[in-house]
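I had to read the description of the data format several times before I understood it. For illustration, here is how one protein appears when written out as sequence plus C-alpha cells:
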Amino acid sequence: MNYIKFENKDFESFVTKEFEKSDKEIFSVNYENKKYWIKKGRETSSNIFHKLFYKILPFEVLLPVQSKTAKEAILFESNKIKKFESLGINVPIVMGSNERFFVLSDCGTHIYDLMRTTTDKEYFYEILELYILELSKIHNSNEYHGGAQSRNFTFFENKIFVIDLEDSFEESVDLKTLQFRDLLLLLLSMAKIENIEFEYSFIINKYIENSSNKEFTYRLKKLTKKMRLITSLGKIGFIYNLSRDTKGFFKLLNELSKL
C-alpha cells in the first residue's frame, strides 16, 4: 500500500497549513468554494478488557479490532476507500494522503442524524433502503465495512456514501463473520431511533433480498439462542429502562427471537 499523491500542490500546501493549525482528529475546510475533510492518523486497537470480554461472550459485535499505528491506519483506510471506489461503491474521493493525514471530498450528512430527526416516514424508508443496499453492495463485492453503524454512512445527492473504513481485523477472522458483524452493527445502530416506527424484520429481509448472504437469517436465529440469558434480563423493568440504548438493544433481541 502506498500514500496517495496530491494532484494539486497549492491545495496540498493549503490543507497542510490547516492540519498544523488544528488539534482535531477530523475537521472540515473550504477551498475554492468546496468543502473537504482532513482526517489525522490515529491508532486502532482494542484493550485487554475488550479482548477478555469477547472470550467470555463471543458476540461478533465485540470482535477486537486489529492494532495499527497512526501511519498504518492512514494507509489502510485511504487505500480501502480507493478500492471501494473501483468496485462501484459510493465513497468520498481521496484527494491525497501522507504519513500524518489524508483529505477527503465532502459527501453530505450522516444518515443517523437524518433518520433520527425526520417525521417523514417515506423519506425515512428511502434513506434506510439505500443504506441497506450500499452495505449489501460492499458484501456482494466480497468486502466488509468494519464499522457499519448508521453514523458511518452519509447522504449526498440522493446517494448513500460509505465513510470511516479504518477498522481491520486479524487475518484468522473469516469474511462471513465480518459481514455478519456489519449487519449486527447496522441493526444495533437503528435501536437508537425512536421518532419513526419500523420493524427490524423489514431491515433483515431487505438485506437478505439484496445480498449474497441468504444464510444470515439462520445465523441470526442461532445468535438469538446464545443470547437467551441476556434477552431474559430485558424482562426486568429497571434493567430494561436503564437508558434509551438498553431499550433499543432489548427490542432488537426480542425481534430477533421471532425470526
Q: What stands out?
A: The first helix runs from residue 9 to 21. The first strand starts at residue 26 and ends at 31. The chain has two domains: 9-105, 109-256. Strands lie at 26-31, 34-40, 94-97, 101-105, 109-110, 153-156, 159-162.
